[in-house]
Amino acid sequence: MNCQNNKKNDSDRSLPWFLLIVVVGLINGSSGYTDNGKTENSTIIGNDNTGNGTLYCPVLKRQPALDLKQIMGKWYAVEVVKHKIEPPAPDGRKDDAHHVTTTVKTCPVVELWPDDNYNSKGNKSEDKSSGIRIRLLWVEDAGDLEYSFSVPDLGKNPGLWRSEGQQNGTLLTHKYVQFAGSVQVIKATGSRMVLTFCSTPSPAGAEETRQLFSFILSREHRLQESFAIGVQNLLARHGLTVESVKETCVNVPANDYSNADL
């Protein structure tokens, strides 16, 4: 997502370090973020509480058919995209060519697996018609977080996931705000996936809990520029305006990847 953007790398001190979201949050300072060679020990899983207005959680065109077995396992979070919190235009919105792209010196790993013993209501069941639960583990140098999502309608709407309960992990010590909302699977193949996260203020009026962001996941730690551009266009067609982008896994030696052998 680096075409026609105002791109800054981690040696540019003029860029404020945005607090983005929660995995499945958005980006805070990074465990691998460097400023003139200095490494910060914070996390890229954070929260953004600087927006104004009421969060609009759009109903996006989700992938209608989804092979959950195909998307399970290990992924690299190669980009985290923060979206402007605003209703989309009726005919979609063109991407803002002036958003800031920042390179983060870390390579987070995401692990997905099904909780086969429980349905969406948390009851042990072999009947998947009532939905299933998916676990998501985010691991980076600064720590880890585990999320739980239900898929209420696996047959007709497999691309809509809803958060269940609170997150757990060592990153809770980094002023983490719990994510409560939905995940929409915009695109998913065996090698790449685009997930859009959205939550409304909870409790009502707690604006600091608003979140709207997308994760770009890849089986490989490198993302082809053509695919990055395609994702940018895909998000724009869904009416999601890009406010900023964090690129990860760039120029990071293989032996430096965060828990790459999960």
UniProtKB/TrEMBL annotation:
<keyword id="KW-0472">Membrane</keyword>
<keyword id="KW-1133">Transmembrane helix</keyword>
<keyword id="KW-0812">Transmembrane</keyword>
<dbReference type="InterPro" id="IPR012674">
    <property type="entry name" value="Calycin"/>
</dbReference>
<dbReference type="InterPro" id="IPR022272">
    <property type="entry name" value="Lipocalin_CS"/>
</dbReference>
<protein>
    <submittedName>
        <fullName>Uncharacterized protein LOC107223041</fullName>
    </submittedName>
</protein>
<feature type="transmembrane region" description="Helical">
    <location>
        <begin position="15"/>
        <end position="33"/>
    </location>
</feature>
